[in-house]
């Protein structure tokens, strides 16, 4: 069992709901469910009964509750003592991140980090890939989260593999296909993101000698989904911008796969302060357990199971 699983267990007890526990931990409901399921499997017991009114501890769950509370409490005390001795009790970390990462992954990292180091201030600079790269180079931010960054002069710590998907209007003729090839999209009116993540899409088409029938370039993730829902066109977007699949679009895996590799980027990992080193460690821990919502996992499992942590 892991300490995080025990923290999830306590959150469910305290909130009486997997959904509210997820909100408290800045995690998805499916992520909470997976962690409780894994803990129950390891212990060989059922911890909660589930019904329409929420969840309730079983007798076995009641018996371990006090022990779990004590473990989590002592863990906090240990971390606080260790943080103070390493000089991590206070300070500021300036973070650069792109929109989908700062919306769906960074909250869990920040919440977990501040849980251990409440005296540290986190400042977020949200922007495009190009802006984040510039902020790292100029020292505006201490570190950044970027996709597909193998640039000279940067040190990169790999965190996640994020597959792209085709998004289509709900009544689109291709909705019956299990997998969409990029060749099938060449004649479709195409809606392109221009935050930087479109580079992999353009490259995939160019490698096949194909071109996009580009109709619009859109900066906001939500805008492109709204336009697809309205039937204006189709798009290819990273899975991470879809926290849940909207009812009026169809999401399909792609052939060949297009994957963006998301990493934590710094000018140098050799000169980290204790507070930054602690943050990087927490980022690695939290992204190792990152899960897409259940509906998204089910949609992508057919093609991308080796990239998603199912």
TrEMBL record:
Entries under SUPFAM superfamilies matching the protein: Periplasmic binding protein-like II (SSF53850), Winged helix' DNA-binding domain (SSF46785)
HTH lysR-type domain sequence ranges: 1-58
Pfam families, alphabetized: HTH_1, LysR_substrate
Classification via PROSITE patterns: HTH_LYSR
Keywords: DNA-binding, Transcription, Transcription regulation
Tree of life domain: Bacteria
Family: Belongs to the LysR transcriptional regulatory family.
Protein name: LysR family transcriptional regulator
Native source organism of the sequence: Paenibacillus aestuarii
């Amino acid at each position: 069992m892991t300490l995080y699983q025990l923290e999830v267990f306590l959150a469910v007890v305290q909130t009486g709901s997997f959904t509210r526990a997820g909100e408290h931990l800045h995690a998805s409901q499916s992520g909470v469910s997976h962690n409780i399921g894994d803990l129950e499997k390891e212990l060989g017991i059922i911890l909660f009964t589930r019904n329409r009114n929420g969840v309730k501890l079983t007798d076995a769950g009641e018996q371990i509750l006090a022990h779990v509370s004590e473990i989590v409490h002592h863990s906090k005390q240990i971390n606080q003592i260790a943080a103070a001795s390493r000089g991590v009790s206070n300070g500021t970390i300036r973070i650069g991140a792109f929109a989908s990462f700062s919306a769906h992954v960074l909250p869990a990292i920040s919440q977990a980090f501040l849980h251990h180091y409440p005296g540290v201030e986190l400042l977020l600079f949200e922007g495009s890939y190009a802006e984040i790269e510039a902020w790292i180079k100029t020292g505006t931010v201490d570190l950044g989260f970027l996709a597909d960054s193998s640039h000279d002069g940067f040190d990169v710590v790999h965190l996640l593999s994020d597959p792209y998907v085709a998004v289509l209007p709900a009544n689109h003729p291709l909705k019956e296909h299990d997998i969409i090839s990029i060749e099938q999209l060449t004649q479709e009116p195409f809606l392109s993101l221009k935050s930087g993540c479109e580079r992999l899409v353009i490259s995939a088409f160019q490698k096949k000698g194909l071109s996009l029938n580009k109709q619009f370039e859109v900066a906001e993730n939500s805008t492109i989904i709204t336009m697809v829902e309205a039937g204006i066109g189709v798009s290819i977007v990273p899975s991470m911008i879809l926290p849940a699949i909207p009812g009026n679009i169809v999401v399909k895996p792609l052939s060949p796969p297009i994957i963006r590799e998301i990493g934590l980027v710094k000018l140098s990992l050799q000169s980290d302060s204790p507070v930054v080193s602690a943050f990087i460690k927490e980022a690695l821990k939290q992204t190792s357990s990152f899960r897409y919502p259940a509906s998204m996992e089910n949609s992508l499992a057919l093609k991308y199971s080796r990239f998603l942590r199912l």
